[in-house]
Each structure stands twice: as C-alpha cells, then as structure tokens.
Write a structure and sequence with these properties.
By secondary structure, this protein is an alpha/beta fold. The chain contains 33 helices and 12 strands. The chain is globular and about 90 Å long. Residues about 310-315, about 435-445, about 500-515, about 570-575, about 635-645 and about 670-680 have low confidence and may be disordered.
Length: about 675
C-alpha cells in the first residue's frame, strides 16, 4: 500500500523532470529498465475506458488500451518488467476489501476479469511479468534497489518508492504515449526529500532512512490524524518530527518517544502508548522492507513461483489453509478451495501468515455453508465455453464479464490439470480479437517516409476562395486600421523579452532587500518572494508569518495592490521601465521557435504539445498574436521604427529568422477564429 499524503507534501512546490523518448531512443541506454506497477497502470487504463464494464465489448476495449500503452513504451527501446500482485499482504485484508467495495460503487469499476485480459495482452506483447506473493509495490521496490544502476524509472502510484528514495518515479497519468514517442514526467524522490528537508530544518541533505520512514508512518497513521485534528494537519506533525530528529542526540533515533507527541508544539493528548506502538511498528516495517530489498531477501520471498510457493496447486495437501474470494457486491467471502486434510504437516512462515477469515477479516461474513453454496453454483463442464453457458443459464441477468469470471474460477480451482486450457481461456476472454489487432508493434517508418509524410501534412488549405484583392480589402477595413493604431498593436512593437528580475521589488519604492514587514509594501514583497521560491521554501514561511501579523485592513489593501493595475513589478524588473513579456510568454515563444527550427522528419517524430493555462483576461490572445508577429513572421523592424527609445524591443533584440511555411490557427469559444500564415501580414 502507498503512503497517504507523502507524495503530495514532497511534490508540493516542485516540478517533475520531463523526458521524451522517440522510437528506439532508449535501446542503447545503460539506464533503460522501466519497472511497472502493473495493477496501478491497469487501474488507470480501466478508469479511462468509455465503455461500461458490464458491456460484452469491455474486454476488447481494455485489451486494445493495454496494448496501445505498453506497445508505445516498447517502441522506445526501454526494457519493461511488469510487477503484478496476488493476494493482499498480511494485515491489509480489511483495507483491500474496503477498496474493492468502494471501487464497485464508483463509476470506474474494473471487473475481476480485467487482470486475465491484461495477462493476455502481456503475453501477446512478449512482456516480462513477475508476480508477487502479496502486493506489487514491495516487489517493485526490491527490483529497484537491486537494479539501481540500470533503472530508468518506476512507473507506479504507490508512494512507498518515496521512502526508499528510488531514483525516478513516474505516474501512469503523467506518461503520454504518441505514435512515435513517449513523454515521461519523472519525479526524483531524493531531490524532493532534500528540498523538503531544507525548508523544514534548513539542511538541503537527504534525510536518513529512519526519518523518511517515520514521516511516512506519521502521515499514514489514523491515530495521528485523529489526535491532531483540528489543531494541525499531519504534514505539520511530519515537519515537527523532522525538526525533532535533526536536533536530537538520541541513541535510538528510529524509536519515537511518547513525549514527542504529548509535549509542545504538538500536544496530542489523545495519542497513547498503543498508538505509539502501532506507529513504531510501521516504521520498523519500512526499515525491514528496505533491508530485505537491499540484500535480496525480498526478491526471494516475494517472487511467486511454483518452487517458492508449492501450496498454490489445488491438487496437493501442501496448502496451510483454505482460499477465499471476496464479493464486493454482497460483501461476503466465498470459499474456493478447502483446507488440507493434514494441516499439521504444513508449517513455517506460510502457515503463520495464511489468511483466516475470523482473525484477518472479522467484519466480513462467509457466504454460508459450503454445501449450500456449491449447490447453487453450476458444475464445471467439459469446456470453458460450455461452463460459461451453464453459468449464464443458472444466473440469468449476470453481466457477461462476470459470467466469464465465474467460468474461469470453476476451471481454475478444479484439481484436474486438463481443466485449464490456455487457448480456450483466450477465446472466452477475447472472442474474435486476434493478437495482431492490438498487440502488433509497428516498426517506425524510414526517414524518407517521415519527410514525405511531413511534407504532405504541410499542405493545408486556409482559404483558396480568397484572392489578393480580397485580402487587401480586408486589410483596408476600418476595424483593422483601428486595431493597428491601438495601444495593443503598438505594444507589440515595443515589448521586450523576458529578463530575470534581480530580486524582489516592492511597490511604493520600497527596497527588495528589506525584511518582510506587516505593511502593505512588505506583504506584497514577501508574497512575490514566496511565489518565486515555492511552498517549501523559507520565503514562503516568512510570507505566512508576515501575513498573520498584519492588521485586517493592511491585508485587504495588500490584496487590492496585488490584483490591481499598480502591481507593475514585472515591467520595472526588466530595467528601464519598459514593458516586458511574462516568463510563460517567453517560454512558449522560445519552445515553438526551437521546435520549428528542427528538420521536418524530426518534428513529425516528436510533435510539440504545450498547454498555456492562465486565467481569463490574462493575455492568451496577446500571446497568440506575439507568436504570429514575433516568431512566425519574425522579421526585424524597419530602421527607426518600432524599436522603442532604446532600440531594445523583442523584434530588435531577438531577430528571429521567421517560419514562413508555418501556420497559426487560433480558435477559442469566446472569440472569432483567425488564421495567419507565417510569411503574410
């Protein structure tokens, strides 16, 4: 299981590293291993499907989505290892059952046949899938530790990888698969920890493992959340913990004392010895898991193989106990296989950890007497297709996905090895869907083919019905003349490139070096410094202190100044008092310019996708016009015209070559659509 809230507090105020890989780019890299938390990816892909899980077409849609996603990853040349799960880890059965019930109530329920469909896709794609005896997360971190030198990233939603400080982490929803490339947004946990540690204790070092484990345990402990609310969020408790350990000289730093929680500044009076014991046990679990991952014990103990776990086969008496299936709809446990005839012959850790309903899941009832349940279920037929027909007849109204699952279960638990027929399993899950329909990974086209495709795509009809006279007539319109004579058009000739400010500048002439004060100018200055530094920086904390100490009237005036037209810090920071672009405007112009300078074939392989997301009225239209006049058209202004008094306008300084073959199409719901060619206007 992941650590609730750990990723969010570490990622706050930071940005992921963006890395794009084209077809075959990772094949020769040393760090080309991508570890995939397959259940997390499957859950994400299932949630994106627009077909209902009860539909007969659900399996085919899911299969194709899986093949598209993993096929794109394969084309980059990355070496994929998929980690899958099995039963929930000992102690997490109740949480697992609650998640299953919650998923059923949501709009994105993934039926139990999702994993068998995924396994078919993995096999068709030739992917390496390794099954964990418990959850996939612990086995993934073990693989990451043992293959650190070749690891590209861990693709997962479980934040346990943050405790282990795995080199790079990607989330499924932050991976963009294009026809000829994949873009990753990679978080680097070690760097995130250093940033958080610097803002918390003033030391930009990686916190020790025991501190990372304690922070994770505090954030995940219900007792901490209950005792702290509404006094402080668990994230504040985590900060206090890091500060305590940074200044502590304790000989046992891994063990948190009760006084830490009971004493100021936390003063969690309801936090008791039992809560502390549970929290310290969680910390010890993280430390033990890290040690097992480092020395290889986790790989040996968690990797599910017939040799490691012989009791899984239903024909023998090696199983420590019975196996069960949880029904999230009726919230009941159904028995799948019976307990062994001689349970005393099975001993060891497996027997001690084997699931016992009354002990591990006391809140869930058994489905009744085994004989009564068996009588209500149809018998396994000679073939899977016949068994599915029998299930559908015995349980009318059952969705097709669950009919399939029922038939698979009846064959899976049958001791007769002939009951499980892999080709028949695929035919039942994916009728009429050949492997090549979704799993074929097409070879990338040659450079000549890409260049020809790019040249063909460049031919766009933007209004062949208009001739030169029509365009001249449009240019002669009064509205066009007024626009060109207006302040906005004049600003386009004077505006300067973005220049990084030398430091926070305050309104009203106050110096940027002055410490934050509770006055209006001090609040605005502190707010600017905080926004530039981010939520985890000392500047952010200083701004919060200044805000809390200011009078309400001063706060209101500061807000007015921040949002009012008098807030001209950006223009004055560029020097000389002239207007300057915003940073995001400069970045998007530079991105597009550099992209269009690349060869057409390379642009076709790696298309540029940029989202400009700013509030209404913030100048997106103005940015689009700058794109046309400053980048696509990009000609230097005539001598003596449009350069401003100091000749330092963006056109004069940048002197971009222009891209006359590029076309800008600007269309928004609230404005008329317009188009312009790079060489016109």
């Amino acid at each position: 299981m992941g650590v609730q809230g750990l990723a969010s507090i570490l990622e706050a105020g930071s940005c992921p590293r963006v890395e794009a890989l084209g077809d075959g780019d990772a094949a020769q890299r040393r760090d080309n291993l991508l570890l995939v938390d397959a259940p997390s990816v499957l859950e994400w892909l299932s949630s994106k499907l627009e077909v209902d899980w009860q539909s007969p077409d659900y399996h085919a849609h899911l299969y194709r989505a899986i093949c598209r996603f993993y096929g794109g990853l394969q084309r980059t040349g990355l070496r994929l290892v998929l980690l899958t799960d099995s039963a929930p880890a000992p102690g997490s059965e109740a949480a697992h059952a609650a998640r299953c019930a919650s998923s059923l109530a949501s709009a994105h329920f993934a039926p139990p046949t999702s994993e068998p469909v995924a396994l078919q896709a993995y096999a068709d794609l030739g992917l390496q899938a390794v099954r964990s005896a418990h959850s996939a997360g612990r086995l993934l971190t073990a693989w990451a530790q043992r293959n650190a030198d070749s690891l590209f990233a861990a693709l997962t939603t479980h934040s346990d990888v943050y405790v282990h400080a795995v080199a790079a982490v990607a989330k499924p929803w932050d991976v963009v698969v294009d026809p000829h490339g994949v873009t990753f947004h990679l978080w680097e946990p070690a760097e995130l920890w250093r940033t958080w540690h610097a803002s918390t204790v003033g030391s930009p070092t990686l916190p020790p493992l025991y501190v990372r484990a304690q922070v994770a345990a505090v954030l995940a402990a219900p007792a901490v959340a209950a005792a702290a609310a509404p006094l402080m969020p668990p994230s504040s408790v985590a900060r206090s913990l890091a500060q305590h350990q940074h200044s502590s000289s304790s000989r046992e730093p891994e063990v948190l004392p009760l006084e830490f929680f009971r004493s100021p500044p936390l003063s969690l009076r309801t936090f008791d010895d039992q809560d502390l014991a549970a929290l310290n046990a969680t910390v010890r679990g993280h430390l033990d898991a890290y040690g097992a991952a480092r020395n290889g014990a986790a790989l040996r103990n968690l990797t599910l193989t017939p040799e490691a776990l012989p009791w899984l086969h239903p024909t023998g008496d090696a199983a420590p106990g019975a196996s069960y299936e949880f029904d999230p709809n009726g919230k009941l446990l159904y028995g799948l296989t019976a307990a062994p005839a001689a349970p005393a012959a099975v001993a060891g850790p497996a027997a001690a950890q084997w699931f016992a309903p009354g002990k591990d899941l006391p809140s869930v009832d058994l489905a009744g007497d085994a004989a009564e349940v068996a009588a209500a279920v149809p018998e396994r037929q000679a073939t899977l297709a016949e068994t599915a027909a029998a299930v559908a007849a015995a349980l009318p109204g059952l969705p097709p996905t669950l009919v399939t699952y029922g038939a698979l279960l009846l064959h899976a638990v049958d001791p007769d090895e002939a009951a499980w027929d892999p080709p028949a399993v695929r035919a039942l899950l994916l009728p009429g869907v050949p492997p090549a329909a979704g799993a074929a990974v097409a070879a990338p086209p040659s450079a000549e083919e890409e260049a020809a495709a790019a040249a063909a795509a460049a031919i766009i009809d933007v209004g062949s019905a208009l001739n030169a006279e029509d365009w001249a007539d449009i240019d002669a319109k009064e509205v066009v003349a007024k626009t060109r004579a207006g302040p906005g058009y004049a600003l386009l000739k004077r505006i300067r490139p973005w220049a990084p400010p030398s430091g926070p500048r305050s309104v009203g002439g106050a110096g940027g070096d002055a410490p934050p004060s509770s006055g209006v100018a001090g609040l605005v200055t502190a707010a600017r410094a905080a926004l530039a530094a981010g939520p985890n920086a000392p500047e952010w904390a200083a701004a919060e202190r200044a805000w809390r100490s200011a009078r309400p009237a001063v706060r209101q005036q500061a807000l007015t100044d921040m949002w009012g037209c008098a807030n001209r810090w950006l223009s004055s920071a560029a020097g000389g008092g002239g207007p300057a672009r915003h940073l995001h405007q400069q970045e998007i112009l530079d991105l597009v310019d550099e992209h269009l300078k690349r060869p057409a074939a390379q642009r076709a392989r790696r298309p540029l996708h940029v989202i400009l997301s700013t509030p209404t009225g913030s100048g997106k239209t103005f940015t689009a016009v700058m794109m046309q006049l400053h980048v696509l058209k990009g000609r230097r202004p005539a001598a003596g015209g449009g350069s401003g008094p100091d000749g330092q306008s963006a056109l004069a300084v940048e002197q971009r070559p222009g891209h006359p073959d590029a076309i800008l199409v600007y269309s928004v719901p609230t404005k008329q659509a317009s188009s312009g060619r790079g060489g016109s206007g």
